[in-house]
Amino acid sequence: MEKSAKDILATAESLFMKYGIRSVSMDDIAREHGISKKTIYIHFDSKKDLVENVAINHNEAEKEMIDGLRAKAKDAVHEMIVISNYVNQVFRELNPAVVYDLQKYFKSCWELFESLHTDFIYNVIRENIEKGQDQGLYRTSLNADVIARLYTGITFVMTDGELFPHKEFPKDEVYTQYINYHLNAILTEKGHGIYKKHQSNES
């Protein structure tokens, strides 16, 4: 993708995150970026096309960030901690209106994002569990495939505004509770010791 198109996506994503998707027009994006609306249409056929590309671009940036964190992690437990810290940051910056607008008004874009996100997160968690089992930190009786699928499904449940109304249940707090639940459910005695050690180092 050309740099000019990527720059437009960055501007669009910034506005979407601040105001929601539906309330931001192509004129708003053009004005913020300092270009004409016609220039946007050179790169993107419609607002739906633009939203879809923002979702894909966001997903790729997230994958790059998480892969970088995984490469620097000391062990499987530390990997989950640094990933969860990053996810919490994303949740804190996420405007609930973005998820609502995607699910209600740009359903195909949401389904695309969900599919890309699900495939990536599933593989990350499955590999993390297998690594933790090899390191003696996670219980070997667990089926990595099943646990990874459960984890992936639950992360999308957290975006359900009816089950977890944002004002009552901030997403980062819900996710923190879930990560603690997830790790304590799979850790061995050795893993619990490593978890406590990493937690004290993070605080």
Give a brief outline of the structure.
With 203 residues, this protein is mainly alpha-helical.
Could you describe the 3D structure shown?
With 203 residues, the protein is mostly helical. It has helices at 3-19, 26-33, 37-43, 47-72, 76-93, 96-105, 107-134, 144-157, 171-186, 189-202. The chain has ten helices and no strands. α4 packs antiparallel against α5. It is elongated, with a radius of gyration of 19 Å. The N and C termini lie far apart (41 Å).
Structural class designation: mainly alpha
Order of helices and strands: HHHHHHHHHH
Q: What is the approximate shape?
A: elongated
The DSSP helix count reads: 10
Topology:
Elements (H helix, E strand, L loop, with lengths): L2 H17 L6 H8 L3 H7 L3 H26 L3 H18 L2 H10 L1 H28 L9 H14 L13 H16 L2 H14 L1
Helix pairs in contact: 1-2, 1-4, 4-5, 4-7, 5-7, 5-9, 6-7, 7-8
Name some characteristics of this structure:
single chain, 203 residues, mainly alpha
